[in-house]
Amino acid sequence: MPADMYDCIIIGTGPAGLGASFQLLKIKPDIRILLLDKQTISTGGLRNDCKMNFTYPIGFPEDLWDKKTADEYLNSTKQYLKPRIMSKANIRTYMTRAEKLGVRLIKIEQAHLGTDKGKKLINKLISELKEKGADVALKEEALQIDEQKRILKTNKRTLKFQYVIIAPGRGGFRFLQSLMDNLNISYVDNLIDIGIRIETRLQFYPIVEDYYDPKFIFPNRVRTFCTNSKRAYVVKEKYTTKYGKPYYSVNGHAFSEEKKENGLVNFAMLKTVHLTQPLASGQEFAEILGLQAALLGGGKPIMQRVGDFRLGKRSNTDSFTDNDLYNFEPSLKNCSPGDISLAIPARILRAIWRSMKMLDTIIPGILHPSTIMYYPEIKLYANKPEFIDDNFQVKQDIYMIGDGAGTSRGITAAWASGIRAANGIMQK
Ligand SMILES: Cc1cc2nc3c(=O)[nH]c(=O)nc-3n(C[C@H](O)[C@H](O)[C@H](O)COP(=O)(O)OP(=O)(O)OC[C@H]3O[C@@H](n4cnc5c(N)ncnc54)[C@H](O)[C@@H]3O)c2cc1C
């Protein structure tokens, strides 16, 4: 076989791409595969925090996965990722309190590695793939696919493939959209999550001692998401609109127990927005909200203390230097004190604030005046393509998987999607 010809090319070394690669090599050890990534190391959740959830439906879009299928794939995923499931305590107490308010606390199996250990895991997995015979090309960006000629153009060369699995994650949103436009694949992009990230002292959200990443589901499609604690930091991610304008979304992660504690907790409160008639692009709506926040925040995300928010006034520098009530510093420094209520659409803010009050009733403390609310946290769901089979095939021998294509919303489901696409190829 010529050097530039592969049985399967996998674009993206996130969990979706890795899951697919391991499964292809497991079923057919002599298969010739190439993994491509435009970065030097995978950039998604494996690299950032690496919390792994092993209970359906967390991370699994329910229109593509039923419980039975997801459970089967989660079992296979576990064999690759070998998680150390964390214990939980006092769950019944929290559940009873939540139920009284019409809130659900979902009990799930979780493992947490931490950002530092996530990096080691990725390097180990990549080495294993190379030992099994896979070619891995980092810092190489996939650009275009010619479906008829079965050619993939990258920023470095032209490659031929029998099958291609495209798993570029949420960051590859625009790349995926351009591929789907070129390949004439229909897709929908009408779902987004918009919300805030809360940061507080551990003592005001002690549930994390009992349950690392508690999943509360509130009315009005609001939920807690991605809780980090003890060595936890809020971070900002930069995005660019299609017109080249920058905007930001906050996020959070934590280091492993090998690092020093900072005594903080952060988590997102997200509201899912489902755009219907007249149908608009979720991506474009999110971009407008991101730009508005960046405008009001002077080119940065906005942060506000709960104490200021409750009094209906903006936070200013004093709100972050006062060492009486407001006595912890934000872990994200590059952020502007301001008024989140000026930037968040009213319906979204009302739903989130109501949910925060419910959460404060279940676990008293979160509404302490010092708690910080960062805005915006934006999760673009995906450009969900129209699949032509159950294994995420979008065109003959072309597969799209992972968070970018909407087959997952988390590490484990992304990995499971990879296995499912690989099985689809191997069934051929
Ligand atoms: C800061 C942060 C923290 C997160 N924490 C968690 C967590 O703790 N737990 C959890 O379950 N989920 C977490 N997530 C979500 C998680 O990232 C995703 O669910 C998961 O990584 C999706 O996997 P994926 O393989 O689809 O995409 P990704 O993991 O995003 O991987 C896609 C890869 O494709 C590469 N790529 C993109 N375009 C191209 C191209 N054109 N050519 C070549 N390569 C390309 C990217 O560089 C990237 O490495 C987090 C996300 C972020 C951003």
Which key phrases capture this entry?
2 domains, globular, binds flavin-adenine dinucleotide, FAD/NAD(P)-binding domain, alpha+beta, 8-stranded mixed beta sheet, 428 residues, 28% strand, 9 helices, 22 strands
How would you describe what is shown here?
With 428 residues, the chain is α+β, with helices and mostly antiparallel strands. It folds into 2 domains: 5-86 and 111-188 and 383-427, FAD/NAD(P)-binding domain (3-Layer(bba) Sandwich); 191-380, no CATH class. 28% of the residues lie in helices and 28% in strands. The protein is built from 9 helices and 22 strands. It has helices spanning 15-27, 67-81, 91-100, 115-131, 173-182, 282-296, 306-310, 346-362, 411-427, and strands at residues 5-11, 33-37, 51-53, 104-106, 110-112, 135-138, 142-146, 151-154, 158-166, 187-188, 191-201, 215-218, 222-229, 232-240, 246-254, 264-274, 302-305, 336-337, 372-380, 384-385, 393-395, 398-400. Strands 1, 2, 6, 7, 8, 9, 21 and 22 form an 8-stranded mixed β-sheet that branches. Strand 12 (215-218) and strand 13 form a beta hairpin. The chain is globular. Bound molecules: flavin-adenine dinucleotide. Flavin-adenine dinucleotide (FAD) binds next to helix 1, strand 2, strand 3, strand 15 and helix 9.
